[in-house]
Design brief:
Distance between the termini: 54 Å
Helix content: 55-70%
Structural class: mainly alpha
Shape: elongated
Radius of gyration: 27 Å
Largest sheet: none
């Protein structure tokens, strides 16, 4: 016991000394070294010091000062620092004022060199939609491509969408299919939906209804609260004369059974499915034509392109 008390006392005095130094505006022992080495352009020292300032670890918390050290470490070539600078600025985390425009160069550097590839999607999204900068679709595609290469599902979906010739990017169908297939496999419902559209419409590729249906059903399963996936699956099932199977995907049933948010444009399809299931075999051809017409009028087969313009970042 006599040995333990002096040790505890020593620790307490040490902690109190650190708090006193910090509150007085100085730095705890060891922290001066990081600040000094950072001043000599050592990126790791800048990064470690930024971490302590951001978290208030044995030093008074100062988020804005921390961002400055993250930014310096990033410019000195440390990808981890680029990630944290971009992330804190993008989301406005830990007391940092959100600045999505200011986050772009740091997210871009992190995308190229950091393992967390979701930052690539954020970078691409801002290059497409940030109102404070000149939009750069081709650069956005490049970052989406990098993210997809790193197995980020949303990046794959966006890369596929852009490679289809959207937003002024050159159309490369073969590449688009590859990105979308990767995105769908990784669990991105939008990628599956776009694939279903492509194999339904059959533009530049051979129409494949069974394949389109499988993609539509997978999209609905991956994101059951998004009604556009459900009523595309229901539409394709009805067109394939799988009438009973299409009913659970109709907006009327989807709202009740799956808790989906279904847009108003789904109403024509809901009515068409009900008409179809009540028709006798001899009049089903006419009913199928009504479904196709009403689906076309509701913009169902094209709404995925519009949805990308309003997709929020992770």
């Amino acid at each position: 016991m006599r040995l333990i008390l002096p040790i505890i006392t020593s620790i307490l005095f040490s902690l109190l000394a650190n708090i006193t130094v910090t509150e007085a505006g100085g730095l705890p022992p060891g922290f001066e070294k990081w600040e000094s080495q950072c001043a000599q352009n050592d990126p790791k020292s800048c990064f470690f010091f930024a971490h302590r300032l951001m978290g208030g670890d044995q030093i008074r918390k100062d988020p804005n000062r921390a961002i400055g050290y993250y930014q310096k470490a990033c410019k000195l070539g440390l990808p981890d620092a680029c990630y944290y600078a971009g992330r804190h600025l993008y989301y406005g985390e830990n007391g940092v004022s959100a600045d999505k425009t200011g986050s772009i160069p740091y997210l871009a550097q992190a995308c190229k060199n950091y393992s967390k590839k979701w930052v690539c999607y954020n970078t691409a999204y801002e290059l497409l939609h940030n109102p404070k900068i000149v939009h750069k679709p081709k650069d956005a595609f490049y970052f989406a491509y990098l993210g997809c290469k790193g197995n980020d599902k949303k990046s794959c979906g966006l890369a596929g969408y852009l490679a289809l010739g959207n937003e002024g990017v050159d159309r490369h169908l073969k590449h688009a299919l590859t990105y979308l297939e990767n995105g769908c496999e990784l669990g991105n419902a939008g990628s599956c939906h776009q694939l279903a559209d492509l194999y339904t419409e059959g533009q530049e590729i051979k129409p494949d209804m069974p394949r389109a249906l499988n993609y539509a059903k997978k999209a609905s399963k991956l994101d059951p609260k998004d009604g556009q996936h459900a009523y595309l699956a229901g539409y394709l099932l009805a067109m394939d004369e799988q009438y009973n199977e299409s009913i659970p995907y109709s907006p009327k049933h989807a709202n009740k059974d799956m808790g989906m948010h279904v847009p108003a444009s789904a109403a024509p399809f809901s009515v068409a499915v009900v008409i179809l299931t009540r028709q006798k075999a001899g009049t089903r051809k006419a009913a199928r034509q009504k479904i196709r017409l009403r689906a076309s009028q509701s913009g169902m087969l094209k709404n995925i392109s519009e949805s990308w313009s309003s997709t929020s970042a992770r």
